[in-house]
Amino acid sequence: DVCVLGSFMKDLVASADRRPLPGETLHGTGFAEFLGGKGVNQAVAAARMGARTAIVGTIGDDRYGEEFLELLKADGVHTDWVVRHPELGTGVGLPLVLPDGSNSIIIVSRANAAITSADVEAAAEVLTSSAVLSVQLELPVEASRAALQLASTAGVITILTPAPVGPVDSSLAAFVDILVPNEVEAAALTGLDCDDEAQVPGIARRLADEWDLRGCVITLGSRGAFVLDRAVGEGVRIPAHRVATVDTVGAGDAFCGSLAASLAAGAGLADAVRLANAAGALSTTVNGAADSAPDRLAAMALLDG
Ligand code: ADP
């Protein structure tokens, strides 16, 4: 089984020809709403990849919270450990997308920021009985640390996606088995540049040594991924699948959810990354966040194709 601790973010996306000036009201050219947040994205991805999945997090007692519970239920994700906060609203993201595809995003964490270590301890049963726990950094670090520590102490395989990019609390390292940074996060953590292919194995090795990891996986966007399994020693460079990409939002989460599902099913790290690489690629062929995660059959077909 997979357990995900993470965020719930309702995305309200506006498109416009340019950014509004201070004091200006600008007519937009389009609007879309998506259910996202790294926690939800990873949980939906893990469930679609065939894992029994539970999510731990906080939402508001509002319409967006209802929408999340419906989506998660439809995908078979257990929501018994989701806390509904009566006074705070569900987290929202407000991206503005420009014609060249670039964006500016305002995130308001709301209920996500209210999760406490006590909420996490109330979910101890699912955190310690799952095969894999996946955590990102959109929630207060105390909650992430409490979950990682509970799971790690119980022998659960723990995965950390160090996103969004920023300083990472070094006290998390002791409880993390597998670190999955993208190239921006890997660069921020080491000061080294993943654009230079020759550096990538050394960056993974350095993170694995510094964090005393079981494995380090660096996702490289349209270049694929690199996986270092310390038990095996040598790293493996896995090239990306060629797909018709329309929207890369959530690719990293589809990748991590798939990785968690495969590890929970007993796969080795390199094989788990191969399938995650297919899941990440497929997620870029669909618009949206949580709902762009592919199912297991589609990912296997791309991998075998
Ligand atoms: P994030 O979404 O966190 O920035 P990446 O951009 O590194 O993460 O994407 C995660 C994974 O998704 C990649 O390692 C790769 O497997 C897959 N992926 C992302 N973009 C593409 C793409 N354009 N073509 C094929 N696969 C992709």
UniProtKB/TrEMBL annotation:
K(+) binds at D247, V249, S283, V286, G288, S292. Its EC number is 2.7.1.229. Residues 1-295 form the Carbohydrate kinase PfkB domain. It comes from the Bacteria. It catalyses: 2-deoxy-D-ribose + ATP = 2-deoxy-D-ribose 5-phosphate + ADP + H(+). It is found in: Cytoplasm. ATP binds at N182, T219, L220, G221, S222, R223, G224, G252, D253, N277. The keyword Chloroplast does not apply. Its cofactor is Mg(2+). The record marks M9 as: Important for substrate specificity. Substrate binds at M9, K10, D11, G37, K38, G39, V40, N41, E138, D253. The active site is at D253 (proton acceptor). SUPFAM superfamilies: Ribokinase-like. Coiled coil: none annotated. Belongs to the carbohydrate kinase PfkB family. Deoxyribokinase subfamily. Homodimer. Catalyzes the ATP-dependent phosphorylation of 2-deoxy-D-ribose to 2-deoxy-D-ribose 5-phosphate (dRib-5P), allowing the use of deoxyribose as the sole carbon source. This is Deoxyribokinase. It comes from Kribbella alba.
